[in-house]
Specification:
The complex is a heterotrimer of chains A (614), B (114) and C (254). With 614 residues, chain A is an all-alpha fold. Chain A is built from 22 helices and two strands. In chain A, 71% of the residues lie in helices and 1% in strands. Chain A has a two-stranded antiparallel ribbon with strand order 1-2. Chain C contains nine helices and no strands. The C terminus of chain C is likely disordered. The chains are: A mainly alpha (614), B mainly alpha (114), C mainly alpha (254).
């Protein structure tokens, strides 16, 4: 039943059109149920595809146009375990997001569900596709659905500008991708990934190949929010309704990285493998992204923006895993992507729960108001630990594999980067948890001095809450998705045999000739050549614990600066404040700034790649 | 002439981006985005052009007549539709900007940051 | 960044990026030389295989039909987005626009425009239907024809008969047209699966090239796309016009 691949995209599209067409007559609950059910079915379909793709890519030629003499006439879905896993991730996150929305009231609800399903269809199609232009079409499909879903709540000036920034910057990125496609088509006359790879393998890495790779890489990096293409991300996260944010945080940026990796390995790996410095250029981008994201994450008080920068910094870490250009690194990166996406999706839902009950998402204004929400607190702490990459979360496994790859590649300093960045992002979340749910921290503008009870007159003290706060337990439709996503992240970490499966999948992911043979000629891929050596866990476990402790320490230092010795406090302030001010200033720009940085990034990456490709 | 269309495509892209970066009016900015997008149309169509070829429509000419590449035509069609729809969405956002904040100047749409 | 600094940074970066682009573009074959196998193979075989004389149409709707399905849904999503954005805010009270000073009132439509505009509506609709239905034979197709059909609506507006337009095409009709068009594409694709072949396989009888009823599913898809594009663009038009016009019923005092 190979048609499953097509159905996983066709079904949500069909239901979306039906929902929109029947919107005037469709009762609200029926529409909600239909949307959740469709997302769940898509998830199941992708899981089945994942299981079947473990034996070799599932290749589905639309319209029955199988290739002739190695020339692909039609469009193919070439489903391998990596693509199927990401598609499943999208399905799981969409189901969780739509379940969460059950209790959120919106005016044009059915239309929203239609857009969410179109969003899901675009994500799934993008992951499963084996044709470069088809990937572009699905890329634009989920992007346009995202613009439409984000621009909805345009009530303050920043919202409109944020939505425009998002749409314009991403459109420019998509344009660059199309430019790269045009260049490749001009050289090879092909659009199918496997066929492109075969055609380029016969030639050198000349200027056209280099610039085509650059355009594709930069275009997808915009979506992935790699520095300096990331300035649009925080606004988009802050504006998006929770359901949309779950998908953003969990899968959209990750797909940008997946696209670069896929395009590199299936199309460019033959000519570009001889380029020595490419790994270094990619690692440079990874380090910059990870560090800028991590620091900015700590500087945020708006919970959604905090998650946005956590995404940026973790994208940097994942890119580092891919940038090593070895199968083990790719395996670790994929596992990390999956688990991290689930954790971030869960965190976004938690933020949504806080917003729904306390009507605010600013950490400082929320100080102490979450005292009666132990569930949300537990979810946020668990999420923070997931971000830090402690066992048993799947992020720990991903990092372990990436650290192993780093050691093999002779870049042990990468381990330090992982430790520091994971500490930064988890510190931000832990600090927020402490402030919101325990009332810790220096007294803010909305609370009386910490430690004093609420006084009878004047504004209520910390923890007393506001008149509109709901103190009931969050409804199951809100809690369950967050819990399930976290459980899934743990399942990724504990599933038996997952490391071997990931390493096998990565071997095939990075094996261009086998992929080409499988797609163009239907030759089944050979099984794993050798048993993989067992991954040592002692070192990574130690680093994970260091990360978590460092995160806790930073959070504590932020919440109780009075407990630090004066000299330490003075030194940190002298170093930190100018960095913070500088970064904040950089990130305060609008659409013009984002696009300018995009071009700067293109020029920089381009020059570096051109130089190393000489 | 052998390189001119490609150079034009590169120029359009850069000019469009310049317009976006220095724009003081949202509608102008969105139009510049369209200009930048048209660079991709030109690049695609130039890549598929065959000198002396006719349109790939064989209603009046026999099959086998030299014709240009039909695939880039299909790709460009897709690209144009995508570009037009994104512009529509952006213009709706611009309408919202003007309605709620009374301005179309991106410099004046500063948010209240924390 | 300040605007001046931004301009300078951009120009510097664009110079480098532009140079790189041009350097890469010189690697392309000369303009006018087409080497790639894809187009040549299709030009040779498409007419015989698909019985559609417009090879671009057979590429768009058959060989690479799934791309077009995605593209159709991009249009669908964007129109939906505009509708959400502009419609949801419609419960605000309608205010006459501030610029509606007495001396800035737009002049009424002249009789010449009204007559010619309305007279053209019929031919334009006919032409649109022609373009949609002959997409597989001559240049044109669902997208082009759908836009032509939407132009007819624009003509009605330009002739000053906007109220009539709104009454003739309420939102419900447009939404339905759009949805039917979008769902129709997927349905045709599923027809292929139901018939035992692959999704979007061309399973209807192919007929002879040059005949109106040929090329199997291609004209059917053309119709679906035409419906969707026409509905979508008229919807866009009406959403934008709603925002800017205050509709005065006859006899109202402003």
């Amino acid at each position: 039943m190979d048609a499953l691949a097509a159905l996983s995209v066709a079904l949500p599209l069909l239901v979306a059109a039906a929902l929109v067409g029947l919107a005037p007559v469709c009762p609200r609950r029926a529409a909600d149920a239909a949307a959740v059910a469709t997302a769940a079915v898509v998830t199941v379909l992708c899981l089945v595809l994942l299981a079947r793709s473990l034996d070799g890519p599932v290749v589905y030629w639309f319209g029955g146009w199988t290739p002739r003499d190695g020339i692909a006439l039609g469009v193919a879905f070439a489903v391998d375990p990596v693509g199927a896993a990401l598609a499943t991730l999208a399905g799981v996150l969409a189901t969780a997001a739509l379940t969460f929305s059950w209790r959120i009231f919106e005016a044009v609800r059915t239309l929203h569900h239609g857009l969410m399903l179109v969003f899901l269809a675009g994500l799934v199609g993008f992951c499963l596709s084996g044709d470069l232009f088809n990937m572009f079409v699905f890329f634009e499909l989920f992007s346009v659905a995202a613009y439409a879903l984000t621009g909805y709540q345009t009530t303050n000036p920043g919202s409109v500008r944020g939505a425009l920034n998002f749409a314009i910057t991403n459109s420019v990125g998509a344009m660059l991708v199309l430019g790269g496609i045009a260049l490749l088509y001009g050289r090879t006359g092909a659009l199918n990934l496997a066929q492109l790879g075969q055609a380029l393998a016969r030639g050198p890495a000349d200027r056209l190949v280099v610039v085509a790779f650059l355009l594709l890489m930069v275009g997808f990096f915009v979506k992935a929010a790699v520095v300096p293409f990331h300035f649009w991300l925080a606004d988009a996260y802050a504006l998006a309704p929770t359901a949309v944010g779950v998908l953003f945080a969990g899968v959209v940026s990750e797909l940008g990285l997946y696209a670069v990796a896929r395009v590199y390995w299936t199309v460019f790996s033959a000519p570009l493998a001889r380029v020595e410095g490419l790994r270094g250029v990619l690692l440079l981008g990874a380090v910059a992204t990870a560090l800028v994201g991590g620091v900015m994450c700590l500087l945020q008080h708006h919970l959604a923006r905090m998650l946005a920068y956590a995404t940026v910094s973790h994208v940097g870490l994942t890119l580092a895993g891919f940038a090593l250009l070895v199968p083990v690194g790719a395996a670790g990166a994929v596992l990390y992507l999956l688990a991290d996406g689930l954790v971030k999706g869960s965190l976004f839902i938690t933020v949504g729960i806080v917003d729904h009950h306390l009507h605010d998402v600013d950490e400082r204004r929320l100080q102490g108001r979450g005292r009666h929400m132990p569930w949300a607190a537990a979810l946020m702490v668990a999420g923070a630990l997931g971000l830090a990459g402690v066992p048993p979360f799947g992020t720990f496994l991903g990092k372990a594999l990436m650290e192993e790859a780093a050691l093999e590649a002779g870049a042990p300093w990468l381990i330090g980067l992982f430790v520091v960045v994971a500490a930064l992002t988890s510190a931000a979340l832990l600090r927020a948890t402490g402030r919101i749910f325990l009332g810790l921290g220096p007294p803010g503008p909305n609370s009386a001095a910490a430690g004093s009870g609420g006084s009878g007159s004047g504004p209520p003290g910390p923890g007393a809450g506001r008149a509109g706060d709901h103190h009931r337990r969050p409804h199951p439709t809100q809690l369950a998705p967050a819990v399930v996503l976290l459980a899934a992240a743990v399942a990724v970490g504990l599933a038996p045999g997952i490391i071997d499966a990931a390493e096998d999948a990565a071997e095939h992911f990075t094996d261009r000739p086998a992929y080409a043979a499988a797609v163009l000629e239907g030759v089944p891929e050979p099984g794993p050549a050798v048993a993989h050596p067992a991954t040592p866990f002692g070192g990574p476990a130690l680093w994970a614990v260091v990360s978590a402790l460092l995160g806790l320490g930073l959070a504590f230092a932020a919440l109780r600066p009075d407990r630090l010795p004066d000299r330490v406090r003075g030194g940190v302030t002298r170093l930190w404040d100018p960095v913070a001010a500088g970064l904040r200033g950089l990130h305060d720009g609008g659409i013009g700034d984002s696009v300018t940085w995009l071009v700067v990034g293109m020029a920089t990456f381009g020059t570096l790649v051109a130089v190393v490709a000489r | 002439m052998r390189f001119l269309p490609y150079a034009v495509a590169a120029w359009l892209l850069l000019v469009g981006l310049y317009g976006i970066v220095t724009s003081r009016n949202l509608v102008h900015m969105i139009t510049c985005l369209s200009v930048a997008q048209s660079s991709t149309y030109i690049l695609l169509l130039s890549v598929g052009f065959e000198r002396g070829g006719t349109a790939p429509i064989f209603l009046d000419v026999p099959v086998g007549t030299k014709a240009v590449d039909p695939v880039v035509g299909a790709l460009t069609l897709t690209d144009i539709v995508v570009g037009a729809t994104v512009s529509a969405l952006l213009l709706a956002l611009a309408v919202q900007a003007h309605k709620h904040h009374g301005t179309l100047d991106p410099e004046r749409l500063k948010p209240e940051r924390d | 960044m300040t605007p001046r600094l931004r301009r300078r940074v951009f120009l510097a970066a664009a110079a480098v990026a532009g140079a790189l682009l041009l350097w890469g573009l010189t690697g392309l074959p000369d303009y006018g030389v087409y080497n790639g196998p894809y187009g040549d193979v299709l030009n040779r075989v498409a007419v015989a295989e698909r019985k559609a004389t417009n090879v671009v149409a057979s590429v768009t709707f058959d060989y690479r039909g799934v791309d077009t399905m995605g593209e159709e849904y991009i249009l669908f999503a964007a129109v939906l987005g505009v509708a959400i954005l502009l419609r949801a805010q419609r419960d605000e009270t309608e205010q006459p626009p501030d610029e509606d000073a007495a001396d800035r009132r737009a002049p009424g439509t002249s009789n010449a425009v009204r007559v010619i505009g309305l007279a053209l509506v019929g031919p334009v609709v006919l032409f649109g239907i022609y373009v949609v239905s002959h997409g597989h034979l001559s240049p044109g197709g669902g997208f082009q024809g759908g836009v032509v059909l939407a132009t007819a609506a624009l003509l009605v507006f330009l002739s000053g008969e906007y109220v009539t337009l709104r009454r003739l095409s309420p939102e419900v009709v447009l939404d339905t047209a759009e949805s039917v068009g979008a769902a129709g594409y997927v349905a045709v694709g599923l027809l292929g699966v139901a018939a035992g072949a692959t999704f979007l396989a061309n399973v209807l009888p192919l007929g002879h090239p040059g005949a109106l009823l040929s090329a199997g599913t291609i004209p059917v898809i053309n119709l679906a796309v035409g419906l969707e594009v026409a509905g979508g663009f008229v919807l866009l038009l009406s959403e934008f016009l709603e925002q800017t016009l205050v509709i005065r019923r006859p006899g109202e005092v402003t």
